[in-house]
Amino acid sequence: MKRISLLSLLVCTNLFLNGAGFAAGEAAPTAALKPVPPHQYNPFGAPGETSPELLSALNKMSETGLIEGRRNSLHLFRWSGTPAKLTHLGLWGVKVTNDLMPLTALMPDLAFVSLYETSVDDSGVEALLKLPNLRYLTFSPIERYEKAGFGAPQWSYPSIERHNERPRVTGKTLKACSQSHTLESIDLWDTKVESKDLGALAACPKLGSVGLSNVIDEETVGHLQACKRLSNLSIGNREVSAQEIERLAAWKGLRSLTIMRAHLSKEALLALAKLETVQVLHLMDCGLTDESLQYLKGSPKLALLDLTRNEINGPGLVHVSKLNLKGLELTFNNLTDGTLQHLPQLSSLETLNISYNTGITNTGIQSGTLQGMTRLKKLELRGLKKVTDAAYEDLVKLGFLTNLGIRETPTSVETVARLKAAMPTTDIFK
After folding, report:
1. Are 269 and 299 in contact (CB under 8 A)?
2. Does any domain span residue 224?
3. Is residue 388 assigned to a domain?
4. Which of 91, 121, 122, 381 suits 175 as a labelling partner, its CA being 20 to 30 A distant?
5. What is the pLDDT averaged over residues 188-210?
6. How many domains is the chain partitioned into structurally?
């Protein structure tokens, strides 16, 4: 994952819409729809097929991402630059096999490759590691997140069947990775990797980020410390213990920690305060409640806290206010018009994301709560379906912001134009 700024660390890099008006891979509105080839359907920049061979390869890949009842392939093909080059490839599901991997030789500009519960094993990964510009490589479980009243985000597929014959990638892949001089990030969430295998990572000169599926023991920490540029770690998809977190305290190069889809006990939350070097902490989809927040003490250097996809209503933010944060992410929680009142106590915030808290309506925007948080520079209100044109006069009062996000709100084109005219120093993203 890209790590450019505090906000770009959020694991929600997912919400893109295609030109047809519904998400890639989303259930089609009508039955028996014909699949659209990747050279005709592409929500991520103009396609740039430079040869019949490349076009054939794209179509073969696209076909493996088709699911009955859904329009378009699940797979992601992202193009950038002029002329357009394929730089990002995401493949989902067991139909993706080793046979497809050599086709990536026709895509030498690939920098991002993500495999989600595919049938690719170590031998298939060898072809990927020959890519001359590969920077980010991900092996991940399929995201199956959904929440009552919200629906599933894009790139989340709750209905896709789980397969037990996995994961297929093992520590052998890490030995091959050690030959890469371009790799900056590798996520191993959907692999069978043991602590002893991680020693190979020290040979990757540019490696800055790792995601692990294995338990954090002392050997693991030792190997992580041996990676000179490594500073970002992601773990999860299981219970993460206090002992594991305490072991990470010995790693003085750790700057960013992500814990996803994990159970965290009271003791584990308390142990996070021992990570004295961590500046960015993501606790995503961990079932945290307002009560849980009393155990989250943080550390002196903590600047950004991401609590995306939890069950926080608002009163527990009194505990978070003691952390002197610069940024707070509360996407997909349970804030309402009534609980917005708990936000101003976070007086040090410069960035705030309250997207997809569907209980926030025009009434909340009109309450003046957000307008009183004048230290804010960036505010994200994405997916607030009950924030409409009627909130215009109060949105204008947020003119002290440098960035305001109102994408996926029902505000009209005309209202957005009026906002931009009335807030010339604010970048409004709709």
Report:
1. no
2. no
3. no
4. 91
5. 96
6. 1
- Among the listed residues 254, 269, 199, 260, the one whose alpha carbon sits nearest the alpha carbon of residue 234: 260
Average pLDDT, the chain: 89
Q: Could you please report the per-residue DSSP string of 163-179?
A: -SS---EETHHHHHHTT
The region of weakest confidence among 18-22, 47-51, 176-180, 300-304 is 18-22
Structure confidence at residue 252 (pLDDT): 95
Query: What type of residue sits at position 310?
Result: N
Residue 229, pLDDT score: 96
* Nearest of 349, 408, 208 to residue 416 by alpha carbon: 408
Q: Give the range of the structural domain holding residue 29, as residue numbers without chain letter.
A: 11-170
Contacts of 349 (CB under 8 A, 6+ apart): 325, 326, 327, 328, 373, 375, 376
- Give the Cα separation of 327 and 316 in Å (integer): 17
Q: Which amino acid is at 157?
A: Y
- Largest Cα–Cα distance in the chain? 60
Q: For residue 36, is it within any domain?
A: yes
Task: Give dist(CA 261, CA 145) in Å, integer.
Answer: 9
Q: Which pair of structure tokens corresponds to residue 143? A: 């995201």
Q: Are 348 and 326 in contact (CB under 8 A)?
A: yes
Per-residue DSSP letters for 222-245? HHHHTSTT--EEEEESSB--HHHH
* One-letter amino acid for residue 97 of the chain: T
> How is residue 15 written in tokens?
């919400």
Using the Cα atoms of residue 279, residue 282, residue 287 and residue 288 in order, give the sign of their dihedral: positive
Residue 313 lies in a domain: no
428 neighbors 406 (Cβ within 8 angstroms): yes
Sequence-separated (6 or more) residues with CB below 8 Å from residue 428: 404, 405, 406, 416, 419, 420
